[in-house]
Structures are given as C-alpha cells and as structure tokens.
Amino acid sequence: MSEYFICSVQKVRSYLPIRKAVHISGSLFPLIAIYFGKNVALGMVSALLILFLVTELVKPVLKEYSFFSSLWRESESEGFALAPFLYLISILALLLLSFRLNEGICYASIIVLGMGDGLSTIFGVHGKMCYRGSSKTVEGTLAGLIGAIIFSYPLVGYLSIVGGLAGMYLELRSKKLDNITVPFSALLAMLIVQALVNAYI
C-alpha cells in the first residue's frame, strides 16, 4: 500500500504566497454578500475582473514591478493568465446563481474554491505522500477537504462534507481548469444531495 503513495512524478516545490493569499481571500465574498448585500459583493468582483483585464492589457509594462511578477506563474508572464480569470468568473457566476438557487450552497461552493483549493496547494507542496502517477499529495487533499468543510459548514451544515469531497476530488483530477471544475462540482453535488434528502426524508 505504501508504494502507491511514492512520489514518482516531479512535484511542485513552491508556490506564490501572495497569489495564494489572494486566492484564499476569495472566501470572504460570501461574508460580504451576507453582511453587506449581494449587489455589493457582485460589484466588488466585477471591479476586480475589470482590473484584471486592464492589467492583462498592460502586462508588458507591469512585468518590471516585483509585486505583479509575484502574482503570475512563469507561463502567465508572457501570455493570458487563464487561471485567475476563471477564478473571478466562477465567483461572479456563483454570486449570480445565488439569486436563483440556494444561496448557502452557492456561497459554500465559493469557499470550496477559495479555501479548499488554496489550502490544498499550500500544504500539498510540503506533502510526502503522492497519488500514483500524480504530483498531487494526500496531505494537500486532506488540508483542502478539512478547510472546505470547516469554513462552509456554518452555511450548509452536513452538505459541506458533500461539497468538500466533490470539490477536492475534482481538484485532484483537474489541471488547468480547476478554478471552474472545483466550485461547480461542489455546487452540483450539494444540490443533488439536498434534492434527494428533501425528496426521501
């Protein structure tokens, strides 16, 4: 069994701390929506999305400043930064969906993206137990799962376990599109389980 967790694939040894701090801070948007209103939260995310797009347009100039270089991965310094774009789009979409769907589930999905996905990277780079054929670690998955459950539990109760498991499974399986697959898999899983519980209990 121990051989299954041997790290046979080159593992990422570091991450961008400021970038991860920004990623995790996305978990604050549900609180902003709850205490200040959804429109305020939507306005803030929309402003950040516009700022991001403007930053992408002037990236050649901004690359000279260390703060901005600490936010971009090496592959993003020359091309379009798809991951943060999808991250903001996901949060914006989930806030909009909260007007139609269960808002607690929509907010919990944002937390799975921000807290779960963020913590999985921070702890994962220090992990020692890799999944077979993958650079991702058991420690990263567990950290992300625990963080997602703890921080989304006040919003959705037991469904936080469902959302956390679905989100972290897709985080493990996804590559470049995890900022889309993680939150929306969590959303779908929680909605399905909630519907089943309501129907049969």
Describe the structure.
The longest helix has 23 residues, at 178-200. The mean pLDDT is 88. The protein is mainly α and 201 residues long. It is built from 10 helices and no strands.
Provide a quick synopsis of the model.
By secondary structure, this protein is mostly helical. It has ten helices and no strands.
- Percentage of residues assigned to helices: 55-70%
* Number of contiguous helices: 10
Biggest sheet layout: none
Quaternary state reads single chain
Q: Can you tell me the residue ranges where pLDDT is under 50 for at least 5 consecutive residues?
A: none
Radius of gyration of CA atoms, rounded to a whole number: 17 Å
Structural class: mainly alpha
Mean pLDDT: 88
**Overall spatial form:** globular
Number of strands: 0
Task: Tell me the layout of helices and strands.
Elements: H1 17-25, H2 29-36, H3 38-57, H4 59-62, H5 66-69, H6 82-97, H7 103-124, H8 138-156, H9 159-173, H10 178-200
Give short descriptive properties of this protein.
single chain, 201 residues, mainly alpha, 10 helices
